[in-house]
Amino acid sequence: LDDLERRLLAALTGFSAPVHRGLKVPSIIVADDLTPSETVQLPRDLVLGFATNGGSTTSHVALLARAMGIPAVTGLGDITSRVRAGETVLIDGTNGTLKDGGEVPIFANLHPGVPVGGLREHGARGIGLYRSEYLWLNRGHEPTEEDQFRAYRDAARFTAQLGEGASITIRALDIGGDKIVRGISHKEANPFLGNRSIRYLLANRDMFKTQLRAILRASAFGRVRLMYPMISCVEELDESAEVLAEVKRELDAAGVAYDREMPAGAMIEVPSAAINADAIAKRVDFFSIGTNDLVQYVMAADRGNESVASLYQPTNPAVLWLMRHVIDAARHRGIKVGVCGESASDPVVGVLWAAMGVDLLSMSATYIPVISAVLSRLTRADLDAYARIPVEMGNDVTAREIYDRCRAWLAEHVFDFENIVL
Description:
It is a single chain. This protein is α/β, with parallel strands linked by helices. Helices cover about 45% and strands about 15% of the residues. The protein is built from 19 helices and 13 strands. Helix 10 links the parallel strand 9 and strand 10. Helix 9 (about 205-220) packs across helix 10 (about 235-255), helix 15 crosses helix 17 and helix 17 packs antiparallel against helix 18. The longest helix is centred in the middle third of the chain and has 21 residues, at about 235-255. The radius of gyration is 25 Å and the shape is globular.
């Protein structure tokens, strides 16, 4: 009778859109309840399962689901308030349980000259860090605007093939430190604290504008995001935004197509940026935490110096405090935050970043299957418990103690953990 009532009202009001309107990918249907007519109208090839607030094991939807060979869990009470569209869940129709998955999208770090064919095979959801500086390093001189445009365009086109919502984040030129380009970089007494990355670009406006034009032009061919490297203060962001606006005006005047809504974000890899993350978040569309440099600068330990390698500690309490502060600032300002440092490729540390609330991880593609396998075995509740480990241990512990405790927890809670990470 309820079903008949709904169908009559739909016919009388002229609103009879099918319940599956908008369903384009295989999905689990989460609803307050489903009527028999709604259930049978659902496209079988796009429905992986049902989960409803109401009903029972003998309700219409449960009976129809069994007849259709589709897993279903009914009578969950408030599942529609606990699960949002787009989240990953696991449904067990045999035992009548539904759990939310701990999936965090995993992207690949990539630079020009590296084959992209394996990204899909490894499960990359996009390119989270495109190291544009390799266009300079591979040539030994500044590439032209056309050289850059073609490289960025081709990468954007490939990224679009990785699936719906895939994007590529192109980091603006990050030279200096240990990345020296003959004729462009200059020898400095302390290059890691010198005229590198965004500082170099702002001091060389023509080069900066050339790269921004190439990136903007490429944004017409895929979902492109621009990322400013080594931001240390809001002045650098304000000045960068002025240069970007100037380039946009020039492209508009020339009638060149580009994505006017292209997001621009900041790498958080300098302690001052991490501490002042709330102010920086006001000026950008996203954060990407570069843990390689952030750990190096927090610990005052050159990550390439073997004699101080033991001080490169992503799980040091000071580093973890800054990570939580940056993530909280991003949440407060309503922007996304990811991690693009190679620490994300360590299952113990990468899963910790996911547990602490980052929205995506980016790493060398070969590590993606391992991190994905570990995350797929954890629920959101598991991740919340995992994130509490270093908090409960406090600051009066070593980085190794935190790391070992986290690894032991994963070994206990993730099925076949040791074999996965071998």
